[in-house]
Every structure is written in structure tokens, then in C-alpha cells.
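[Q] Does anyone have a clean C-alpha cell version of this?
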Amino acid sequence: MTMPREKIVILESADEITLLFEMPRMVRRVRMNASHPAKLEPSYLGDSVGHWEGNTLVVDTTNFTEKTQYEGSSDKLHVVERFSRIDDKTLLYRFTIEDPETWDRPWTGEYPWVKSDEMLYEYACHEGNHAMENVRSGARAVERQQSGQKP
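[A] Here you go.
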């Protein structure tokens, strides 16, 4: 089984943790030590609040819009995520998903996120960066051919 190669940057401040995802290009803001407001406009990413349980960051997310549609979910989707450091280079990402209108019971999954020294690219432009290299390489080959130089 191939695990996702997501590149994520995690930023922490006193009141918030921000998760920057390369693909899909997404920014999630997690309000720390807060509660979900009684009235809040639903959103595609939901409302995320977090707290620490020892060395594990626990993020509780509710208030999704019906447009989120994760694996057929409804706007009753509720996700609890746990981020635990296994070693200096690995986070264990564990999630529990429930939606009483979609599944008959909550379900859980997990996988490791391995630290990467690679840059985080803007997803929409990354493909173009590869294409640009190929376009330039082809243009240089045409220029060499036209000038009589060997490839």
C-alpha cells in the first residue's frame, strides 16, 4: 500500500496552529484551547479547535458544509485528528471520522508523515515549472540545430 506523500508545513503560535498543505493547496487554521461557537456559518474545511493531550495535538473539527462531501459525508461530518511525534523525523497522523447520516459507526485510520527537506511548492504552478524546463530545453535544442552546433 502506498502512503500519501503530502508535504505539510505546521506553524504554531500561542493561540493557533496553522497547517499549510501542498496538495491540495489548502491552509487550515486550528484555534487552540477554544470551543466550537454555538452559531457559525458552515465552511468547506469546517471549524477546527485543538488542544494538547501530553505530546499529542488533538484537533476536533465540525461545522462542515454539505459541499465538503468527504466520501459521501453529510454536513454532520465530525473529524478528530491526532498528531503524535514518533521520532525526530516522523509524525503519526491518526484520524477518526464519524457522520451518523453516512456511516453506522465511527472509523479510524492512521499513517506516518515523514519529515522532508524539500520545498513546499504552490500546487497549481508546480506542473508548469516542469513544463517550462522542457520548453526551454527544446528551445535550446532548436537554437543549436539552427546554428549548426551539435546537440
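[Q] Thanks! Anything notable?
[A] The radius of gyration is 21 Å.
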